[in-house]
Structures are given as C-alpha cells and as structure tokens.
Amino acid sequence: MGLIVQYSRYLFFTASIFLILINRNTVRSLIKNTKFYLTIALILVLFISASINKTDVAAVFQLALYMLYPFLLFASWSWRIAQTEDVCRGLTYGLNILVLLNLLIMILMPQGLFQTISSDTVSRYYLFGAKNQMVAPVMTCLFFNIEFAYRRYKKVTKSALFMFFICAIELYIGGSGTGLIVLFAFIILVILQLKNRNANSNMALVVLIISFASIVIFRVQNIFSFIIVGVLHKSLTLSDRTYIWDTAFESIRKNPIIGTGITESLSGNVHLKLNYLTKDIFAHDIYLDYLLMGGIPALCIFIVLIISVKRSYEKLINVRYQTFIWWGVVIYLFASIVEIYTTNYCLFLMFAYMGILEQSIRKNHLVRG
Fold first, then answer.
1. Structural domain boundaries, residue 42
2. How many domains does the chain contain in total?
3. DSSP, res 119
4. Is the distance from CB of 308 to CB of 317 less than 8 angstroms?
5. pLDDT of residue 267
6. What pLDDT score was predicted for residue 368?
7. Which InterPro entries match (predicted)?
8. φ, ψ for residue 117, nearest 5 deg
C-alpha cells in the first residue's frame, strides 16, 4: 500500500502532461503563471547544487514531481469558466477519500502498516506516515474542505465540520501534538476571516520570521524551561531538534552559496549525519532544508514564491473574494519551522491553487463573496 501511494505520483504526473499535450490553452495558462516559473527556477538551483556537490541528482527529479504536477494538472482546467471551483471540489473529495482511508487503516490496523523504533520510541506508520508526517496531508484536507464549503455555500457546512473532527481524531491517534496545535490555529484564522476581521498578510510573514528566529536561532524556548520541563515534562532540545539545527547551521556555514545538495532520500530532502545517531536525519526545518539543498539562492527563490502567493491573496481580497488557502499556507509554513514533511506536494498544491485563482480574477471568472 505504501509503495502504491509513493509511486502514484508518476501516474499523476504522466496524466497531467497528457492533458497539457491535448489542450493548447493550458500552455497559455502556464506561460502567465509566475509561480510556475519560480518553481522551475527553484528546481534548477537544486539541480545545480546536487550536480556540483555530486550528490543525488535523481532525488531532485523526484522532488520536481512533487512541485510541478499540481501546476500542470490545474492548467488543464483553469482556462475555462468556473473550472476553478471544479478543481477545488475535486481536490476536496480526493483528499477526503484519502483521509478517511487513513482513518480506516488506523482503526483496523492500530499497530500500523509497519513500525520503527528510534531512541526507545515506537513509531506506527499508517497511510500518511507516522506522527507529524501526517500533518501535511491531513491539514491540507481540512484547508480545502473549508475553502470549498465557503466557495460553494458561503458558510462552513456540516460536511466540513465533520472532516474537521475526523482530522482532529487522526492527529490525536497518530500522536501529533504539532498537528493539533496548527489545526486549532487555522480554525481561529478561519473564524476571524468569516467575521470580516482578516489578519494582515504582511504581519503573518513577520510572525513567521520572528518565530523562526526565536525558536531555531535564539532558542527562546529555554526561557520557558520551567513550563516545558517542569509542567509539560518535555525536553528543551525539542526531541533533539536543537542538535539537528546546530549540525545544519554548521553545514550551511561551510557551503552558504550552493548548499550541500540533496542526499539520498525518497522525499528529496537533505539528510544530516549526526554522531549520536546510526542513521541520517533531515533538518527538521523547511528553511534550513532549502539552504542545505540549494544554498542562499534556493531559499531566496522559495521566499519570493511565498511572497507571490501572498500577493495573489491580496488581489483576491481587493475584489472581495474570500479564500482560506493562503492561511493554510501560513499554517503549513509555521508548522515547518520545527518539522519537514515528506509530502511537500501539499504545499505546492496550495501554491498552484492560488495561482489559478489569481488567473481567474483576470478573466472575471470568480464569484465575489
């Protein structure tokens, strides 16, 4: 089952290319999509870094599949009137099926599809992985449920609330504390937007920067040791993440311009070698990971891509169109300060969706609300 899920991306990618080839209008859509060009540029930087560092170039192509296929697939529909709503509906139903299937596996196979043991901790792997690995697909499912409900019915529907509880149950059973925190943070942002008290998108980016600097660089969590250790009985190393970040910073200082390149990893992330672990481990921070994968150029392109998505959101707000996917992106990036999700396609899925919404504004295809 796990292999089927992993290699299904090749089927999606092939199907999207086929749709591109049979419809010339989709090419026009891609040509006008700035986010698509930025993604191509990011992939090229990662490829150059891997080539210079003589690391796993094949992993770059694997990561490219995650990044590109949403843009290619959505371009097949975005040129037609009202098709962006169909895209939203299809994503919502598809993600719902996967999330419900993941819950079914959790119920029927409580020990997971397989298990791993690390530092005396047993991790149970389900359809979406184990613990925090489930956050990306589960939360993306919730993002699109809220998006489709409001776009179609101008309110949060019973089915969206049902999926909210399903997502919460899965994160709880899976043991993802990070997932539960970001789930409720997203709900707060949704409530604010429904009450026409939209949080400032610029301030959201400032909060992300401050949070990254505070947690990863300055380790502000040490100030609250009496709560973290004394009350919550957690380690100030955040499950050894501070050691991992220190190792990442050391590697970045040695190769700030081109990074260290992508190493052997199915997800296309960087694996760091730590003295106290028998296996390699990734950076547990998406921003450090891009610095490692492609140096400063890769991180800069990624940041410009985020800003491009933010501008798409602002254009939608200017025409009084409500979308919740931008806040899904913000929540995803916030969670990525302390974690790396092998399902990176979820983030680029949202990037691509915001891109076709912006194109729909130009064609006046969106219903304002």
1. 2-102+198-362
2. 1
3. T
4. no
5. 44
6. 45
7. O-antigen_ligase-rel_domated (IPR007016), WaaL-like (IPR051533)
8. -125, 125
* 152 found inside a domain: no
Helix axes 158-174, 177-194, angle to 10 degrees: 160
Is residue 346 within 8 A of residue 140, CB to CB? The reply is yes
pLDDT of residue 278: 39
SS3 27: helix
Distance in angstroms between the alpha carbons of the first and the last residue of the chain:
41
Kind plus residue range of the DSSP H or E element containing 49: helix 34-53
Spatial distance between the Cα atoms of 119 and 360, rounded to a whole number of angstroms: 50
pLDDT value for 298: 95
Query: Hey, is 229 helix, strand or coil?
Result: coil
CA atoms of 29 and 21, how far apart (whole Å)? 13
Distance of CA 343 to the CA centre of its chain: 7
In a domain, 131, yes or no: no
pTM for the structure as a whole: 0.87
Taking only Cα atoms into account, the Rg of the chain, rounded to an integer number of angstroms, comes to: 20
Amino acid identity for residue 82 in this structure: A
Residue 139 inside a domain? The answer is no
pLDDT tens for each residue of 112-150: 888 876 656 777 888 888 888 888 899 999 999 999 998
Q: Counting every residue, how long is the chain?
A: 369
pLDDT-flagged residues of the chain (< 70): 1-14, 16-17, 19-21, 23, 25, 77-82, 117-120, 196-198, 228, 231-233, 263-281, 340-344, 362-369
CA distances, 268 to each of 37, 262, 344 (Å)? 20, 6, 9
CA proximity to 341, closest of 163, 136, 112, 148: 136
What is the rounded distance in angstroms from the CA atom of residue 174 to the CA atom of residue 185?
Answer: 19
Question: How much is the pLDDT for 276?
Answer: 43
Tell me how crowded residue 275 is: count the other CB atoms within 10 A of its CB: 6
Task: Give domain status of residue 169, yes or no.
Answer: no
Q: What is the distance between the alpha carbons of residues 74 and 228, in angstroms, rounded to a whole number?
A: 44
